[in-house]
């Protein structure tokens, strides 16, 4: 008893009942102290010796390993014996098997000290093993939860990517297992919630909570600040807006209601609306809230022009055509890298698909005006699906792009939009027009205007809040401004054969 009390005093764990070490050990089970390495370090101090934990492959997991007999360690790890004691060369050694959450694996706790193990130190080792096993089980549970969370997140992304390429049948099939009824709808809206990178996971969780998992919530693979939400119902959209009130750096943009097969288009609309939300006091915007040029053009003529422009793609199998169009929509809206991340393909695949569309349409996506016009056609194809095309007459010239853009409503819209730039004495309108003509290249624009490239960027950046559109980021906002310039003849029309000139299809695509 005297020796035991002396040992307690040296270890700094003495108490009236000699069990203070148990309280210290229990502290390691509190949330702030759950660390196997700290437990092994504590054990070494409590028994005034050396302690280590290794797995069944011999890899050291914690502590300092004393000299060990490999055969004895292997026997303990394999479960042939539960524990072992050894004495020699002035050392006393204890080996105890540590059960892992995975029954096929195990670890070995080794404790070595100069004096023999008495009842107290033996109890400390025994209870420490129990604590280590609890911590390992907790770690495995947490890891399993994290793996499940990641798998669920990956599954949501896979569903979104299927919707992006118009494969709604597969998307519904994948969703049915975990979220029955989620996509039991013909139409939906897409919302993009933008916050900080640090808060994105929390924002995504709140999106799931407020929608009651009645919406598809996806961490955007392309933009680290974005959460994409596909909302089948109106109530989910209202619930999402409630999230941004108390968050000063959070914005939300929503699309018009689209069929599930047009999710890619809805996504582009949501991103465009998000740009507007940055200039709104309530930090929210919906795509339908803004007047867009396609709504100012005769729908029948617009449908005829669109069908004729995209007719070369009609010869492709349905799946291939849908894949090319979905990829091109995103590729025109975002960079090839970001479009690839959203679709879950390589950027080379995105470029290859877009190059194939370029070839079929006899156009050049390197030309900004051509990109804007093809982007218009792709949006029209979606929004005017139910509009009947005009009846072609052999004696009538086909509708040209100039015909579409020269209508009074379209010209009035363009004049009103660009007139906002005239209020600035820096001639933002001239800079913007030249920048578009030079393919949004600041250096070439600077050479043309005889100014510094940074001045060009500042002018374009200054035009963004005036027009309530993001320009430097490209995409729908920029294309609308390009169309406004085309409507006022401030830019040359792109070389889109059969659309600009009105040549017969046989001369264009023959």
Automatic annotation (TrEMBL):
What organism does the record attribute this protein to?
Streptomyces osmaniensis
The UniProt record lists the PucR C-terminal helix-turn-helix domain at 337-380, 428-472
Pfam families recorded: HTH_30 (PF13556)
Name the InterPro entries on file: CdaR-like_regulators, PucR_C-HTH_dom
Report the domain of life of the source organism. Answer: Bacteria
Record protein name field: Helix-turn-helix domain-containing protein
